[in-house]
Design brief:
The protein has 329 residues and is of the alpha/beta class. It has ten helices and seven strands. The protein folds into two domains: 256 residues, NAD(P)-binding Rossmann-like Domain (Rossmann fold); 34 residues. It is globular. The mean pLDDT is 92.
Length: 329
Amino acid sequence: MARRMPCYCWVSFLGYIVMITTAFVWYKAMRAFLRIIGPYMIYPGINLKKRAKGEWAVVTGATDGIGKGYAFELARKGFNIILISRSQEKLDNVKNELLGIYSNVKVKTFVFDFAKSKDAKEYQSMIEDVNKLEVGILINNVGTKYTHPELLHGMKDDLSDISNIIAVNTMPVTLLTSALLPQMVQRKGGVVVNISSFSGLYPMSHWSVYSSTKQYVRWLSNILRQEYARKGIIVQTICPGLVVTNMTKKKEPSFFIPDAISYARQAVGTIGISDETTGYMTHQLQVEILKFLPWFIRNWFIDSLSRNIRKAYMNKKKKAKEAKEAKKE
C-alpha cells in the first residue's frame, strides 16, 4: 500500500494568515507614523492667504487658551483678526496684546455670551456685523465643559450646566459656519476650523454630554467637508488634548501639554494638510497609541482615568469644605 504524503495545507494557510496580519499591522503602523510626523515635520504647508481668499479671520472664545493662540498665530501670518468672547475687558486686553506685537494688522472685537444666547435670533446682529467684512477664516473654538467627571444622573442638580454645554458646544459652530459660508462660496475659497476634543474621538465615560457634543462637531465637520470640497472651502476638525488653558486648569507646559501659542503654531500649520488631526505632534502620538489598543482595554483605560480625576476632585472639594468649617469654629 502506497504511503500517504503529509498534508501541509493547514500550515500553508496559517502562514498566509501570519503574513497578511503582519503586513496589515505594518501598514497601520506606517499610517500612524505619518499622521504623527507628516503634518508637523514632513509635508509642506499651504499658502493660507491664497486658500482663505479673505483678509479677516474670526476666532470665537478668543480671550484665553487655544482661541487666543489661534488669534496670535493668524495675526503673525498677516490676517486681520475678529475676536469674539463674552468679556469686553478681556477682549480689549487681547486686542492690545495683538496690536503691541503685530502693529500691521487690524483687530475688531465683539462681545457675545454664547452660554446666554440660546436663541438663533440673538446671533443675528453680531452675524450681520461680521458679514460686513471679508472673512477668509473661521475658527470655531468656543466651548465649555463640566467642572469634573460625573455620571449623567449625578448632574441632576446641574441641569443648567448640561444645557449650557449643549448650547455652547453645538450652536455657535453650526450657526456661525452657516452664516459665513455664503461669502466663502461666492469667493470660491475659505477655511473653517472646528475645534472638537480628544473627548470627541471616543465615548468618554463620566463625560457623556461633553463627549457627545464634541462628537457632534466632528460629524458636522465631516459632512461639511464633503459638501464644500468642490467649492474650494477647507473644513478641518481639530481634536486637541490638554493645553495650558483656564478650562483645563493646567498652568505649566510639558511634553504632552503645550502652551496655547505653541499649540496654535503647529495646529495652523496643518490646515489644508490634515482633514482631522489633534493639532499637535505629541497629542497625535497619544491618539495613535490609543488606536492600537483593543477597544475593551481602551475603554477601561479611559474609564479608570475619569474615575481617578473625579476621585481627586471630590477629595479636594471635601478638604476645602472641612477647612472652611474649621475656620468657622
